[in-house]
Design brief:
β8 and β9 (114-119) form a beta hairpin. This protein has a ten-stranded mixed β-sheet with strand order 2-6-3-5-4-7-1-8-9-10. With 125 residues, the chain is mainly beta. The protein contains one helix and ten strands; from the N terminus they run βββαβββββββ. Helix content is 6%, strand content 52%. The longest helix is centred in the first third of the chain and has 7 residues, at 30-36. It is globular, with a radius of gyration of 14 Å. The model has no long low-confidence stretch (mean pLDDT 94). It has one domain: Barwin-like endoglucanases. The termini are far apart.
């Protein structure tokens, strides 16, 4: 048996764009993906802190260093530019999960720069 465990999270990411006419997905700056351990085309759960909307989509990489967090396609209707969102990726792990399982969490500032890293139960600035 496997369980779905939180693997990586971008916390309080600021939405920089919303393109209703794009085919779909969430665009995330590639440097943020690399730091948190998420991958292009990986399925993610997105939660809008401002209005409570929750939806699944997949990641497409955005320009390195751009800070882009853009919702595309139908998901663009669920956000406004400037909204704060949480982007979560999960992994299938054999049950019971390892006792030392810890997701990587990047807490972002208003410009989508890393404000702190929560890893292995510790906060690092």
């Amino acid at each position: 048996m496997f369980v779905s465990m939180l693997k990586a999270k971008l916390h309080r990411a600021c939405v920089t764009g919303a393109d209703l006419n794009y085919v779909g997905s969430i665009t995330i700056a590639v440097d943020l993906l690399e730091q948190v351990g998420m991958y292009a085309y990986e399925k993610v759960l997105v939660v809008n802190i401002e209005n409570g909307a929750r939806f699944e989509t997949y990641i497409i990489p955005g320009d390195r260093g751009s800070g882009v967090i853009q919702l595309n396609g139908a998901a663009a209707r669920l956000v406004s530019i400037g909204d704060r969102v949480i982007v979560m990726a999960f992994a299938q792990v054999p049950a019971p999960p390892p006792a030392d399982w810890q997701p990587c969490v990047l807490v972002l500032d208003e410009q989508n720069r890393v404000a702190s890293i929560e890893l292995e139960g510790n906060v690092r600035n």
